[in-house]
């Protein structure tokens, strides 16, 4: 907030033209992958229009420019022996030796100090940072040059990315990186810059103390970093809700995989369609995962994984298969298929989510394998068999789920009106105007999929007043109370409850399980 004083002083420059530095840098920009792609145009326009590179500063601290000027000619001294002698002393004693040592010792015995002036300017600090690729990558056996990836904020197109590019192009003829990733800046929940004076700073430590590190990591994984990123109490609350759904998915899997043995596993060919559909969804998520890693678009996968857990699993698959898991015989082929799929889901989700949910995934892994001495972070991502992918099956189940949505909507109305208590008390009459829909529904157990007592299909348009949903054509529903008695074990209504000796409150399936017989559904 003071007036700026302009002062002309001699400076040191690196020419952008005399040795073709600008052209080399532009070629290097074109040969580099930029994420997002807009970064290419940003840095390219800067290099195209920039003047020569001023690399000197006049400060009391910094890395010196180790140059001597001939007093008579005004030219810098270009002597390899002096350069090596200076480099050796700096390597032994540090860069400050340029200022503390008798500068005549740098010149050596063959040159008269009275003929030269020692330069006391320091290098631009961006030149310092721009050379990190050399001493970080080239002097370490575990590393390689050039870097696979540079990543920093969008302001570094003018800073670190820029100086690294020019320094490497000038000394090595190419960029010091193969890829460059840039991210935006963190703002408060309203999109305003954080400021202590305003009081809108969101401290990472506070989020960790209140909610745990996995919540903060989940926010990072779910945020589109190519734009400025917002964080505030409401956003953190949303992450807590998302985390709870993911954690509950782990809990469900762990609770239903107790004592799972390899001998229980079923091949995909022996599984019902619903289990094969879940495996198909796993294959789709695997494609999203690989694409998100290749594109550094991590939020794409984590958003898809959360939707999968919340919508496909919790609200659909888990809800439907609870009956099989709790009520079928342990040797039931249907139950074995479910547990095989749950085992596959567990391995996929724990390893897929481990990079973000590092503690939760490890906790889930060790809860299932407490004596293995292993860690989820030592596991690779699973190889998903190509036979999991089944587009035709997915298309069929997309329509089945649309029809199911109409039935569930009708059941919700009946519950809200207190005409039924749970969906198991309902008898559903399903009207389908298209025969293809009727054939589709006929190939699955819609009562099982809608958790109702029965679903009776009529291939015709529904009567006046039948329940329908906008956007789902040719489907309408009527709901009435189920007939029969309620089984005390599975809670399903059936006309055969009370017909088995010694078990007056069981249905046929539950009687078979209790008595150790084969399930009729097998």
What's the arrangement of strands in the largest beta sheet? 2-9-8
The shape is: elongated
Strand content: 5-15%
The chain-level structural class is mainly alpha
Q: Which whole number gives the mean pLDDT? A: 93
Radius of gyration: 35 Å
Count of helical stretches: 19
Quick one: biggest sheet? 3 strands, parallel
Q: CA-to-CA gap between the ends?
A: 83 Å
> Got a strand count?
16
- Helix % is 40-55%
The poorly predicted ranges are 518-522
What does this structure look like?
With 522 residues, the chain is mainly alpha-helical. Helices cover 46% and strands 11% of the residues. It has 19 helices and 16 strands. It has a three-stranded parallel sheet. α8 (160-172) links the parallel β8 and β9. α12 (273-294) packs parallel to α14.
């Amino acid at each position: 907030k003071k007036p700026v004083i302009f002062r002309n002083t001699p400076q040191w420059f690196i020419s952008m033209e005399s040795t073709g530095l600008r052209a080399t840098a532009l070629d290097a920009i074109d040969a580099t992958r930029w994420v997002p792609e807009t970064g290419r145009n940003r840095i390219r326009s800067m290099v195209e229009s920039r003047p020569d590179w001023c690399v000197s500063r006049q400060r009391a601290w910094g890395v010196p420019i180790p140059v001597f000027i001939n007093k008579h000619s005004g030219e810098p001294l270009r002597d390899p022996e002096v350069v090596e002698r200076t480099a050796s002393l700096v390597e032994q004693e540090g860069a400050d030796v340029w200022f503390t040592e008798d500068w005549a010792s740098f010149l050596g015995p063959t040159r008269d100090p009275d003929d030269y002036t020692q330069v006391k300017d320091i290098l631009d600090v961006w030149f310092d940072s721009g050379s990190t690729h050399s001493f970080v990558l080239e002097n370490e056996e575990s590393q390689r040059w050039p870097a696979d990836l540079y990543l920093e904020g969008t302001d570094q197109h003018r800073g670190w990315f820029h100086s690294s590019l020019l320094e490497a192009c000038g000394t090595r003829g190419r960029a010091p990186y193969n890829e460059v990733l840039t991210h935006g800046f963190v703002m408060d929940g309203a999109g305003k810059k954080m400021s202590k004076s305003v009081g809108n700073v969101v401290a990472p430590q506070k989020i960790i103390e209140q909610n745990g590190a996995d919540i903060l990591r989940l926010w990072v994984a779910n945020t589109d970093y190519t734009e400025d990123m917002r964080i505030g109490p409401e956003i953190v609350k949303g992450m807590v809700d998302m985390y709870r759904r993911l954690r509950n998915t782990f809990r469900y899997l762990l609770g239903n995989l107790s004592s799972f043995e390899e001998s229980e596993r079923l091949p995909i060919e022996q599984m019902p369609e619903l289990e094969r559909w879940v495996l198909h969804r796993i294959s789709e998520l695997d494609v999203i995962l690989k694409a998100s890693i290749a594109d550094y678009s991590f939020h794409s996968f984590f958003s898809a994984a959360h939707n999968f857990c919340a919508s496909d699993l919790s609200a659909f698959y888990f809800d439907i298969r609870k009956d099989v898991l709790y009520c079928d015989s342990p040797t039931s082929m249907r139950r074995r298929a479910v547990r095989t799929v749950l085992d596959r889901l567990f391995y996929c989700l724990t390893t897929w989510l481990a990079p973000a949910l590092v503690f939760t995934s490890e906790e889930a892994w060790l809860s299932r394998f407490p004596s293995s001495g292993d860690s989820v972070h030592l596991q690779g991502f699973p190889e998903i068999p190509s036979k999991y992918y089944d587009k035709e099956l997915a298309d069929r189940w997309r329509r089945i789920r649309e029809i199911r949505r109409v039935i569930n909507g009708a059941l919700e109305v009946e519950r809200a009106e207190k005409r039924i208590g749970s969906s198991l008390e309902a008898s559903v009459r399903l009207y389908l105007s298209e025969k293809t829909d009727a054939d589709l529904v006929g190939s699955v157990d819609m009562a099982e999929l809608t958790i109702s007592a029965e679903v009776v299909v009529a291939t015709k348009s529904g009567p006046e007043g039948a329940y329908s949903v906008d956007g789902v054509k040719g489907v309408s529903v009527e709901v009435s109370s189920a007939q029969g008695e309620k089984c005390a074990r599975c809670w399903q209504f059936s006309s055969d409850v009370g017909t088995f000796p010694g078990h007056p409150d069981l249905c046929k399936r539950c009687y078979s399980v209790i008595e150790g017989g084969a399930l009729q559904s097998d």
